Every structure is written in structure tokens, then in C-alpha cells.
Amino acid sequence: MKVGRLDAGRVVLADAEAPHAGPGEVIVRLAACGVCGTDLEKVRGNYQSAGRIGHEPVGVIDEIGPGVERHRPGDRVFVHHHVPCYACAVCRRGDTTFCPTYQRTNIDPGGFAERFRVPEENVRRGAVLTLGAPVGWEDGALLEPAGCALTALRRVGFRAGDSVFIVGLGPVGLLYARLAHAMGAGWVGGAELSPLRRAAAARGGAEATVDPREDGAAEQLVAEATGGIGVDVSVVATGAPAAVSLASRLPRRGGTLNLFGLPEAKSRLDVDLQALYLHGTRIVPTYATTERDIADVHALVASGRLAIRDLVTHRVPLARIDEAFRLAAAPAEALKVVVTGPALGPGA
Ligand SMILES: [Zn+2]
Ligand SMILES: [Zn+2]
Predict the structure, then answer these.
(1) Cα–chain-centroid distance for residue 190?
(2) Does this model's pTM top 0.70?
(3) Residue 90, SS3 per DSSP
(4) Alpha carbon of 23 to those of 10, 11, 81, 142: distances in Å?
């Protein structure tokens, strides 16, 4: 079978042995897998946790191993690549995405493969989620990044009525905006360079957006929207270091700065610490998501309360994975790009 992998800073299509299901395991035939910003960072060599690419896959179960009871061949599923242990000191305090077990677990050989194996641990802890009928393949391929946004909103203590400003409206920033809106945000605004992305935010998610190259535009927009107070939650949804200093100027007193996007490697925080102290800004980094939050996002999509499908602008077959990565790195051309696999039937 074919698999897309990282090879010396490039994404290449390679041949691999098709996996089979051992006890408790599941084999999934790929329908689609989103290209994530972190996949692009791995190609650039900017991500410490390099290694496998493709962690937003949906597909059809092809094979189940002995002992698997909750799933059957033919089920349409989303698969989450990492699962926490739920038992260690980190998990017991609710910080499950920082569990040491979490990053160790993974699907094999990754999400950009014609078939992939889901380890017993992931299957047992509920990382294989059956898609509801109204949830299309595009929706499914967006569940993991949308789950990251939900995990973030929960970790920052978001409440209905809160105002939110997002610096960086790439696919995951757009999902953050749509989700905050669906959860009752009082006001959502954003800053983004790409007109294509700002238009997607205007279609749903954000009340207003600005181009961050306009000096003072974000500060002015936030001041107007909040009566000069500042937002409850200011989100950094890009790795650009300038985004952090912009976002750090926008929270209200006692508000939150959410470090959400993967920061540039070796970047340092340059903020006025005394101002931060007197302002009472909480800095909350949030990383990744859990199968539980993904299941909650799935319920929102299935019920029609969260519309996200239009954020997928390109479907590229696995055979042309290099083209998928090129597009995903071109904010003027594409929003979310998904790589498609053999399970994607006509009209799916
Ligand atoms: Zn992702
Ligand atoms: Zn744990």
C-alpha cells in the first residue's frame, strides 16, 4: 500500500506493508485526513515532537482484531491518534493532554496511509469514534482541530457571553471562532493577513476582522467592541512571534492570553512583566485535545449547531500528497486541505 511520510524534510509517497489487526486492534481504510499546521511545521523542521505525520483521519473500518466489540467492519469512523492514561497524577488533575502516555500512543503508520492500524490502547480508551449520519467526511476530518479548540476553551474557563479575539485565522483559528460562537460567545473578532481566511471568518464565527498589518487596528476594534475594557480571552492561533505581542495587548484586566498555536522553535516571550502583573493577565497554553472533547464537538456538528464543512477547500488524492502540502502552506489559495484515500466513494 501507499503511505505519505517525512523524508529528509520532504513529504514523499512510499510503499509499505499493509497492516493487519492484532488482538483488540482495528484497521481503517482511509477516506480523508486533514493536513494540519503541525504537519507543515514538521516538514519545516520546526517541531520538537517530529516523527509521524497525519493525525486527523476518517475512514471505514476494514478489519477488527479478536476482542473488539464496540466496532464493526464498514463503520464510518474518526480516529484520534493520542490517548491519555486517565490514571497518572497529571490526568487525575484534568491536564490529560500533558499526560506522558499521551504522546507515546499513535496510529501506525500515520494518517496519510491507505490503511492504518489503531493500537489496542487507543481502541480500548474510546479513540475510535463512529460518525453520525449527518457528519460528512469533511466534517470528520475537521474534528481533531475543532477538538483542540474545545479543549482550549475549556482550559481557559470560557463562559457563554465572553468576548474572544483570535490572532491568526488559519483553519484552526477559524474553527476556534466558529466553536466559540456556537458556545455562546458574546463577541468574536480576529486578525488575519489572508483575505480568503477573513472572508471565511465573516461567513461564520467572527463579528469583525482586521488585517494585522494595519497599525493599531486590532486594538481599536477590541476597544470599540468591549467599551474600552478588552476581551475576556485573547488567542494566539499562529506561530508568528509578533502575534504573541499583539494578542498580549488585548485582554481585559484579569483576562486570559491563550497560547494556542505551536510557537516558533526557540522563540522567547518578550512582554512587559510589570504591566502583565498589574493587569492580572493569565497566560494559558493549551495543547492538543482528547477523544472526549472530540466526541463533544462531533455531537455539536451532528446536531447542526456547529457548521464547519465549508472550511475544507481542497481534496487532494494521497498519490499527490506533495501538492496537498504545498496548498496547505498557501494561505492565499486554501483554507483546510484534506488528503483523500481509497475509502472515499463517489458523492461521499
Ligand atoms: Zn491537527
Ligand atoms: Zn496520564
Answers:
(1) 17
(2) yes
(3) helix
(4) 34, 32, 18, 29
* CA distance linking residue 329 with residue 100, whole number of Å: 30
The answer to whether position 77 is within a domain reads: yes
pLDDT in tens, 166-186: 999 999 999 999 999 999 999
pLDDT in tens, 141-164: 999 999 999 999 999 999 999 999
Q: Are residues 52 and 142 both part of a single domain?
A: yes
Q: Which ligand does the CA of 87 lie closest to? A: 2
Give the dihedral of Cα atoms 297, 300, 303, 307; nearest 10 deg. Answer: -100
Do 127 and 8 share a structural domain? yes
Nearest ligand to the CA of 99 is 2
Ligand nearest to the CA of 83: 2
d(CA 27, CA 107): 10
Dist. CA 297 → ligand 2 center (Å) = 22
What is the CA(215)–ligand 1 centre distance, in A? 31
- Residues spanned by the domain of 79: 2-146+289-340
In the chain, the DSSP E strands lie at: 2-7, 10-15, 26-34, 57-64, 76-79, 115-118, 128-130, 163-167, 187-191, 208-210, 231-236, 251-259, 282-285, 312-317, 336-340
Torsion, Cα 237 239 243 245, to 10 degrees, reads 120
For residue 244 the three cell numbers come to 504573541
CB under 5 Å of ion ligand 1: residues: 36, 145
Closest listed ligand to the CA of 34 = 1
Ligand 1 midpoint to CA 292 (Å):
16
Q: Is the pLDDT of residue 11 over 90?
A: yes
Beta-strand relationship, 251-259 and 231-236: parallel
Which residue in the block uniquely carries the three cell numbers 487596528?
217
Number of domains in the chain: 2
- Decide: helix, strand or coil at residue 39: helix
Instruction: Please report whether residue 95 resides in a domain.
Output: yes
